[in-house]
Amino acid sequence: MSISAATVTLPAEWRDFLALTKPRVMSLVVFTGLCGMLAAPVPIHPVLGFTAILCIALGAGAAGALNQWYEADLDARMKRTAKRPLPAGRMDRQSALHFGVGLAGFSLALMYFAINLAATLILAVSILFYVFVYTIWLKRRTPQNIVIGGAAGAFPPMIGWAAATGDVTLLPVLLFGIIFLWTPPHFWALALFVKTDYANAGVPMLPVVAGERTTRIQIGLYTIPMIVAAAAPWPLGLAGPIYGIAAAALSGLFLAMAVQVAIRRTDPESDAMIPEKRLFKYSILYLFLVFGALVADRWFT
Amino acid sequence: MTDDDLDLIRARQRSRARVMAVLLGAFVVLVFAISIVKIRLGHPG
After folding, report:
1. What is the domain partition of chain B in residue ranges?
2. Are the C-beta atoms of A254 and A282 separated by less than 8 Å?
3. How far apart (Å, rounded) are the C-alpha atoms in residues A248 and A276?
């Protein structure tokens, strides 16, 4: 845990604080939050909308910083994360902790004063869930870590919706459900091709604990309820045909890729894991497009 | 600690201070804009 404390003598660069917020993860969080807000039936003033999205981004950044503060030892053992500011020794842990807590407090205070209590409470729950339930409690203990922990990343559309309307109805709950059920196939596709990394770090990801075969089957199984959640808004009358048709086409492609991954038998030593990498990349695009289709549907119908 | 180290520390402190100044300035503008919007919308909060 005290990897960097002895080696860091220089003050960290501002870019390292930015890196602590996991900007790439934040882009998806911001996008889904924005879509939740734009899909709401009540318009929000652009300045307040911008502030709400800023608060979601800052809250996600705070959660990312606290995650990196707690996981500095794990990150140091994984190739993918070893260059992050803490394991690379460019920042001391205390700075990361102060930055994360300060940013979380700031995002919640701004959300409360500028927007409303409902959005603030959901943002608080999502930060606390990511840090305490996922990072501290589940990640090192169970292969179900990302299944339950996925809830943390599923809150943003609900926060966006609550920022616009002040409450939560069935559609934002379904949007939550889509991301929640999308997380396992997305992360397990990644875990299949970075399995060695997770194994070296001692993280009990499903491929490490239960093997590749089980992981592949689970990817296929989780894709089914995800598709049902993605399809539901149209038949329930919560979205129109633009969304319904787009979601069906995108989900069909997702299912085809997931089935291909689910039924494959490979030699883990020599396989390039191309279908798994393709599913992982497509899963990100899928989420962007499904949420984009919902907003397009709301605006054009 | 050599002069080079001190120079590096000062350079980093300067660049962090500059970023902080920009962020604080942006925050002031944002709070002002939020206040104006809230007054116009007649929100009690």
Report:
1. 1-45
2. yes
3. 21
Element (H, E) at B44: none
Interface contacts A/B by beta carbons within 8 Å: 31
Nearest to A47 among B8, B12, B34 (CB): B34
Smallest Cα distance from A46 to chain B, Å: 9
Q: Which of A8, A13, A14 to substitute to test the interface with B, most B CBs within 10 Å?
A: A14
**pLDDT per position as a tens digit, A223-248:** 999 999 999 999 999 999 999 999 99
Reported as half-sphere exposure (CB side, CA atoms, 13 A), residue A188 has a value of 32
Which residues from A are below 8 Å from B13, CB to CB?
A: 11
- Give the tens place of pLDDT for each residue, A245-259: 999 999 999 999 999
Distance CA A172, CA A157 (A): 6
Q: Please report, to the nearest 10 degrees, the dihedral formed by the alpha carbons of residues A217, A222, A228, A229 taken in order.
A: -170
Provide the phi-psi class of A270: left if phi over 0, else alpha when psi is between -120 and 50, else beta: alpha
Count of other CB atoms within 10 angstroms of residue A185 = 27
Q: What burial letters (b/e) apply to A103-132, b meaning 16+ CB within 10 Å?
A: bbeebbebbbebbbebbbebbbbbbebbbe
**Which whole-number Å values give the CA distances from A70 to A1, A108, A119, A227, in the listed order?**
8, 21, 26, 34
Residues of B in contact with A54 (CB under 8 A): 30
**pTM here?**
0.90
Asked if A218 and A207 count as a contact pair (C-beta separation under 8 A), the reply is no
